[in-house]
Fold this sequence. Notes:
This protein has 119 residues and is of the alpha+beta class. It has one domain (4-116): CATH 3.30.1330.40. It has helices spanning 38-56, 73-87, and strands at 4-6, 17-20, 23-29, 63-70, 95-100, 109-116. Strand 2 and strand 3 (23-29) form a beta hairpin. The longest helix has 19 residues, at 38-56. The relative contact order is 0.25.
Amino acid sequence: MDPQHINPKNLSHRSDVTVWNGVAYVAGIIPPDNSLSIAEQTAEALAIIDGHLAAAGTDKSRLLTALIHMTDVNRDVAEFNAAWSAWLTPGRLPIRTCVQAGLQGSAYFEVTVTAAMPE
């Protein structure tokens, strides 16, 4: 079986999601409106992730990993964590790494996740 590439916008440089061997890999998500608070930006990004997971046939309750890049971890991580923790499925916490990094444009953070597919 070949990997499934979900690319509804027909982007020439990446897919939104790739599904392979029972795992959905979701591309890094940057919130669309960085004029909002970090909590609001996080909610926007997580809603996009929800949509990508649904397009692949899975959901946040099956998250395996999360990688968060932030331009200023010390400034933004507490507000991000509050929104992130409220979004997660209780008792289904993925492993997670949060690092400081330079990001495209004026983004404050980018979130990449992987999730198990239903059997």
